[in-house]
Amino acid sequence: MKCDKEIVSLMHKYLDEEITEQERKILKKHLSYCEACNKHMSELKKSIAFVQSSSHIEAPENLTELVMSQLPEQKRSVNWKR
Amino acid sequence: METLIKRIIIDVKKGDQEAFAELVELYKDKVYQISYRMVGNVHEAQDIAQESFLRAYVNIDTYDVNRKFSTWLFRIVTNLSIDRLRKKKPDFYLEQHIEGTEGLTLSSQIAATEELPEDQVITHELQHWIQEEILNLPLKYRSAIILKYIEDLSLKEISEILDIPVATVKTRIHRGREALRKKLSSK
């Protein structure tokens, strides 16, 4: 069974933490009896958790040195003017 | 933090290169994280990260110190990543997935946590899978999802970085979530 687009839109509002109290009640009630939407909701939550479980990545150690070695000469000369 | 950044930037604007090194140190991980998640290749990601900082340095005079520096910087890195991807041949993405060494390089750069070897293998595979699914997202959704769920930024900040209205950011995140959901539930 295909549910109203409105319900899916409420799910996204819920996930964006922008749902109103009244909308929250409508969503909650709908999810209590609609298995398809319940599944949809839990899959959305899982998708978010999935992306959020990505590891924190660190930049290569020498990145700062590399960047600094590539800075244009032009601005360097400003230093001694001070 | 913001006051500290402001002070450093004022020094950079005066031409202090050491101050710029401090800025790079402070932001390099976040910048690299965005470029890596966007392009999925460590060499490209490093290249983009370097280029982003160089552009930030060269254009520092156009940066308004009263605005958030990270927003300005993340806009540079996001745009450079998107430009880079648009210039690529479509098969670039496919190559990424087949290439076996990519994950190895990635895992060596992921901060090591105290885990048993078996868990490490699982983590490695999971991480590889996550990155693959992120790369499968259309560019528009990918940037929004990365900024929202990996960088943990607000919708307003994302809208400033991507230079699109908040409503559009929401739409992209909604579609990105639906795209991920469809991919994950079909597995």
UniProtKB/TrEMBL annotation, chain B:
Superkingdom, according to UniProt? Answer: Bacteria
Where is each RNA polymerase sigma-70 region domain found? 23-89
BP GO terms, sorted: DNA-templated transcription initiation; response to stress
Query: What would you give as a GO molecular function for this chain, any one?
Result: sigma factor activity
UniProt KW keywords:
DNA-binding, Sigma factor, Transcription, Transcription regulation
Q: Report the residue ranges that make up the RNA polymerase sigma factor 70 region 4 type domain in this protein.
A: 129-180
**What Pfam families does the annotation carry?**
Sigma70_r2, Sigma70_r4_2
What the entry lists under Gene3D superfamilies is as follows: 1.10.1740.10, Winged helix-like DNA-binding domain superfamily/Winged helix DNA-binding domain
Q: Which family does it belong to?
A: Belongs to the sigma-70 factor family. ECF subfamily.
> What name is this protein filed under?
RNA polymerase sigma factor
* Species assigned in the record: Anaerobacillus arseniciselenatis
